[in-house]
Model the fold of this input.
Amino acid sequence: MKYITKSPESQEVFRKNPLKREFWIIGKKLTNKYKDVSSSLTMKIFISIVTILLIASGFIGIIIPGLPASPLIFLGAITYGFGFGFERIGATIYIILGILTAVSLTIDYLGSVLGAKKLGASKFGIIGAILGLFIGFIIGSIWGLLIGPFVGAFLGESIRRKRPKESLKAGLGATLGFMGGFLLRFPICLVMIILIVWGILK
Done:
């Protein structure tokens, strides 16, 4: 039998007492089943905690720039799918979440670039705004993301030896562009969270 111990002494006891043998087999089956259920339950609890932390971090990123809000929210949904099945939320919602994430990232990227260009920045200012935004993201503070595009565009324009007034104007455009992107990112991320919750509860 699969559940019979290999110990000769135990096998001898089981031969003399078949009832004890049956109880031992039943106990072994229940123990193995409990281990499987316990392992599965522990994993699902872990997946749930990670999902909540990722989505919560993304939500905080909506309010506090420095955290990639939409990617974290999308990653939370993917993590949930690995633990509970992607069919739970549904393929349609995952596709929408992916599209919204791409749109949000594009807005963040173009916000600074187009903002600088609108107010007269050259390619030097635009590259500076991108680098400033990237450095501000690495710093991970709201001031880094707000000042980064401004300083980057200003330094980029200064390389072309433009007058300080024009460089400041381009830097201001980059900053305003980023803020505009932030205001557009907020409803996108909010919709993503609502879709995830609706997909789980439906």
Observations:
- The chain is about 85% helix and 0% strand.
- Residues 1-6 have pLDDT under 50 and may be disordered.
